[in-house]
Specification:
- This protein is of the alpha+beta class and 391 residues long.
- 48% of the residues lie in helices and 12% in strands.
- A 4-stranded mixed beta sheet has the order 1-6-7-5. The protein has a two-stranded antiparallel sheet with strand order 2-8. The protein has a two-stranded antiparallel ribbon with strand order 3-4.
- The longest helix is centred in the last third of the chain and has 23 residues.
- The chain starts with 8 loop residues before the first helix and ends in a 21-residue tail after the last helix.
Length: 391
């Protein structure tokens, strides 16, 4: 018997299950709403300029009957689709012996919130504990600017290794963060046997067809995951009606229902450093500094008072270039120091020029971000030519 025989069995089973699943879904590859979202990773997460976006809080709706949290037009389209499905069911047009029948009535997962605030709170809690154990950092931290400078140096040494919302978003993103995704069931996503059983459900072809008809993609990798087709006529009609704004393209929906994460992130970073330093100051208003007294020929200790934080309102009135430079520094550290000191200084000079011309921090942030992130271009093609099909 050869050494380690048997350890290859599990990978082999995984491979065979994956192969079986790929065979099972082959017949659905022909359909326009059966999409491989592993290759469309930016759909619902980036706007037409490639900027990360998040659903606006005031556009999120809750439907208790269907246990849904999503954008209002997604809920309306979903309910309309399910109503039609159940009419087919009650008329005996489709099988009553299907797991899909129950799954549609109470989807397992819809919107999942990414808790940026908690991640950042954990960051400063971790850093604030480290300060007092490092003499150099402790003595260097006397006010918010110095605290900010010392903190940024330590970002990659924190457990999260992330500070910006953009970085946190890219590392932790799942499709359910975009408020247009509905998971009918909750199952182990690595188990292809479960996926095969779902695909082979007698009513799955019906589900696929009504999803196409009412404006939902089915995720090829997760066959119980539905994603709103933002170019579908039915979805555009629902969004137009509920927003009372004419929606003709996917970008109309993205502009109306989503915020650009970059701008949220930038403003949140300002508040973060105020809150983080205030938390630290409340516990460590001063530090001790040893010095040698030549007159008495002995070592003595001074108490060095840290600067008390002003009000948050006053702090946020600080010169904008201070915050823009901090944001640039954070992105550079997160990128594992993509730019050296001279290169970073040149980037900031250009950013300063852009800002000084019009005091437009948005254009300045566009420029700063562009130095670290590329421009995704992975949007699904327009579904304007899709024809609704009835069963």
């Amino acid at each position: 018997m050869s050494y380690n025989t048997g350890y290859e069995i599990k990978p082999k089973i995984i491979y065979e299950n994956k192969k079986s699943y790929n065979e099972a879904i082959k017949e659905y590859d022909q359909y326009i709403n059966f999409i491989d979202f592993d290759k469309q990773t930016y759909y619902g997460f980036n706007d037409k300029n490639g900027l990360e976006i998040v659903p606006k809080i005031n556009k999120i709706s809750i439907d208790n009957d269907f246990n849904l949290i999503s954008l209002d037009f997604v809920i309306e389209a979903y309910k309309e689709m399910v109503d039609y499905y159940y009419k087919l069911l009650s008329s005996n047009s489709i099988s009553k012996n299907s797991q899909i029948n129950q799954a549609l009535s109470k989807p397992a997962i819809s919107l999942v919130k990414l808790n940026y605030e908690q991640i950042l709170k954990n960051n400063y809690s971790e850093f604030n504990k480290k300060i007092v154990n490092n003499k150099q950092t402790n003595e260097a931290t006397i006010d918010i600017p110095s605290y900010t400078q010392e903190y940024i140096k330590q970002i990659l040494k924190l457990k999260s290794k992330s500070q910006t919302y953009i970085r946190i978003f890219s590392k932790n993103r799942i499709r359910n963060h975009n408020a247009i995704t509905i998971d009918l069931i909750k199952q182990n996503l690595a188990d292809d046997n479960i996926k095969i059983n779902f695909i082979n459900d007698i009513n799955f072809p019906v589900l696929r067809k009504v999803c196409e008809q009412y404006g939902f993609y089915i995720n090829k990798s997760i066959p119980w995951q539905l994603v709103a087709n933002l170019s579908h006529p039915n979805i555009l009609e629902k969004a137009s009606k509920l927003s009372q704004t004419k929606m003709t393209t996917i970008y109309d929906i993205l502009d109306y229902y989503y915020d650009i994460l970059l701008f949220i992130d930038y403003e949140k970073q300002k508040e973060f450093f105020y809150d983080a330093y205030s938390n630290f100051y409340d516990k460590r208003e001063f530090f001790t500094e040893a010095y040698f007294c030549e007159r008495k020929q002995e070592t003595k200790v001074n108490l060095v008072q840290r600067q008390a934080p002003s009000s948050k309102e006053e702090f946020l009135k600080t010169e904008e270039l201070f915050f823009l430079k901090n944001y640039l520094d954070i992105l550079n550290v997160e990128s594992n120091y993509k730019y050296n000191i001279v290169e970073k200084l040149n980037i900031f000079k250009e950013a300063k020029t852009i800002y000084s011309k019009t005091l437009d921090k948005k254009n300045t942030l566009y420029y700063i971000r562009s130095q670290f992130y590329g421009k995704p271009n992975e949007y699904l093609s327009s579904a304007s030519n899709q024809q609704n099909q009835s069963i």
